[in-house]
Design a protein that fits this description.
Blueprint lengths: L13 E3 L5 E3 L3 H22 L3 H21 L14 H15 L9 E2 L4 H26 L6 H25 L4 E2 L5
Helix pairs in contact: 1-2, 1-4, 3-5, 4-5
Length: 185
């Protein structure tokens, strides 16, 4: 079975949710899952830039979880639709990853500037896009109460912390010195 890539149903500025409802393409629900999709693409670029197989596998797992989040956000909230779910184990994977990285990188004494290597910079781009996705999902959950599982917000919050630490780990692994932010006096 194949699907047509173009349907022409969005030509008038609406898009369909899984379950049938049509909403404007600028709706915060679309912005939310669109930004999660953008994050997933950035993570693919990050995964392609790193060489550690374990790190690549964790990022691929995260990419799969982001599809889970996207499927939840892209579903019509007025209908009972079975979508994949996130679990506490998904959050624990991120927390364990943060703890493992924290054990090998030098203690953080300053704010640090993104950069030093393209992979480090890409990790920080991922972190920033993740924070934007989190803000949008929080706004959606406030504008449409009881339509967004709270675990989605928790996961995105923890993921942005994890991505910050991935940037630090990459700096460490690549022997790139982190650049401290120096405030103008």
């Amino acid at each position: 079975m194949s699907f047509k890539i173009y349907t022409k149903t969005g030509d008038k500025g609406t898009t369909g949710l899984y379950g049938g409802a049509r909403i404007p393409k600028y709706h915060i629900r679309i912005e939310s899952y669109g930004t999660v999709d953008e994050l997933n693409s950035h993570l693919g670029l990050l995964r392609d830039q790193i060489t550690d197989a374990d790190d690549q596998q964790i990022i691929e797992t995260i990419q799969n979880r982001l599809f889970t989040i996207g499927s939840n956000l892209a579903s019509d909230p007025s209908k009972e639709i079975k979508t994949p779910d996130l679990t506490e184990d998904d959050i624990l994977l991120l927390e364990n990853g943060i703890d493992n990285i924290d054990a090998i990188v030098p203690p953080l004494k300053n704010f640090i500037l993104p950069g030093g290597h393209i992979a480090v910079s890409q990790a920080h781009v991922c972190r920033c896009v993740c924070r934007r996705a989190e803000r949008l999902v929080v706004a959606l959950s406030e504008s449409e109460p009881d339509t967004v599982p709270s675990i989605l917000v928790v996961y995105l919050n923890r993921l942005s912390d994890y991505l910050f630490m991935v940037g630090r780990k990459l700096s460490h692994d690549l022997g790139v010195e982190e650049t401290a932010w120096i405030a103008r006096k």
